[in-house]
Amino acid sequence: VKLWCWGSGASDTADIYLTKDASSPDWEPLDSITCPGGGAQTIVQAFDVPKGTNQSIRVNFRWGGSASTCSAGSYDDHDDLIFTVKENPNFTSPPTPAPTQPPTPVPTRSPTPMPTNANDGPGPSGPQTASYDAALGAPKCSYGLSCDSVGLLNGRGTMNNGVEPNRPNTLNPLNACTDGNSGSYHGDESIDRIVVTRASGGDG
What are phi and psi of 174, to 5 degrees? Predict the structure, then answer.
C-alpha cells in the first residue's frame, strides 16, 4: 500500500481488512500499521487467501482514532481493491485418515490455479491493472499474478489538488464509506495506490 503520511507519520495508521465476497463484504481485520515516517511511504501486509471468487482488500487510513473499517475523521481515506481468485473446480482436499494414537497430521496443499484459456497453461495470467467497477463501487482486476490500482485511488475525496477519481472507491455504492475532504494533496493524508501480489500457493 502506497500512502502519503502527514508530519512524522506517527499519528497516521492504516487499518487493513479482507473480505472473501466483494458483493457482500464481511471484513476480516488483518492488521493496523502506523506510518513508518512522513511523506511517501509503502507498507506491506501478507495474508492467506480464503475461498471466494471476487475478494477485496480495504485500507482505512486514519489520523488518530482507533481501528475501524470506516472511520469518520475529516483527514481519513478509505479505499477498496477487488481481485479475482480462480480455483481448480476438480480440487478436493486430502481425506482425513481414521483416528490413531497419536493422531497422524494431515498434509495440506493449495488448490491448483486454473488457466484463463486453453493457451495460458497452469499459471496465473500475469500482472493485472484494475479498472473501475461501477456496480461494486471500487477498482477491480481479473485473475492474475497481481492486481494494481495504479492511479484509480490516488488522492482523497475532494481534498485540495487531490480529488480522487470515482470517489469514494468503497464497496456497496448505495451505502459507501465516504472520505474526509480536509487538507491538501501530498500535504495531508491519502492512499495513493494498492497492489495485491500473489506470493505463493495456488490461488491467484
Answer: -75, -15
